[in-house]
Input
Amino acid sequence: MVRSPATIDRDGLDALLGALRRRGFETIGPTVRDGAIVYDGIASSDDLPVGWTDVQDGGTYRLERREDDALFGYAVGPHSWKRYLHPPELTLWRARRGAEGELEVSEEPPEAPAYAFVGVRSCELHAIAIQDEVMTGGAYPDPFYAARREGAFLVAVNCTVAGGTCFCVSMETGPKAESGFDLALTEVIEEGEGARHYFVCEAGTERGAELLAELPRSDAGAGELAAAEAGVAGAAASQGRVMETEGIKELLYANYEHPRWDEVSERCLTCGNCTMVCPTCFCTTVEDSGDLAGESAERTRRWDSCFTMDFSYIHGGSVRSSARSRYRQWMTHKLATWIDQFGTSGCVGCGRCITWCPVAIDITEEVAAIRADALD
Ligand code: SF4
Ligand code: SF4
Output
């Protein structure tokens, strides 16, 4: 078993992808599509966003060329791994009318491909752990999520570039992956003559160590480990946002009637973008549909959002009819009631909700505003 850190080069990374595919995994990783870095099937390192970085701020995202061939020189994009573990749309069951007119209902089997996720950031490992608790930690585990999650092989990448809206340091979720991965990579690109481009690779599980042992590699020396640590420290020091989390649950519970909720609701479009891109948001609705002849029907589960009126519609009306109440519900759930419900914060500081909000509403700014002028 290879337990001590090793270094691999780009060929080694391609060997890793090949070894995962030979083991039957569907390899999913970051790739460039439609002007963004999204997650999709990848076959080799050529499919990664080679030489690209992202520039992010409130309501702003764009790709720019780097001056090198970094494979992981960017932060997180609009996708998160929940689109594979907890897909946006899922058929739960189908029904057909039989020859005698009787209904035959068949539940969709909760089968799933064996996924290998490549390029999972530390905040995303925390988000997956949070969704594990939500989807499978209670009395009624979700079999669809469990089938996708079970056996998924996670290749983490420690961040050496921080996004403009990242605040994982505040949430204690990054930028270095500490657990929950099979393998973790840190990309190092040296400068100057004879500069090398390599990845410090460490195993977090036995199967990760087995796979690492198959790759062309060398033992990581002290200089290589220090270079990797320096890259991660640089990302930690250059995060675009901070959030003061001390006593945040009590702060929000004491400020349900803070005037800041009125101010933010004047800007909020209740579009739900923040919930779609958030790696921990999990709410769904179910829709039934049938054909016009009455011969078949199916039930589909889709992502839903607490920003829609329908989400809290109960016999004749919506419980949260104002934008104020819906934004307050979302933010208070993320940062306060989630702690009572699941034992952790519901926010990992990935910054997606800030970047992808069309009017640049910023959860860190909202917390700071309430804290600066708290009612209690
Ligand atoms: S906070 Fe922004 S992204 Fe979220 S619902 Fe309001 S306008 Fe949309
Ligand atoms: S609330 Fe925003 S910053 Fe926190 S995990 Fe969700 S998308 Fe990321």
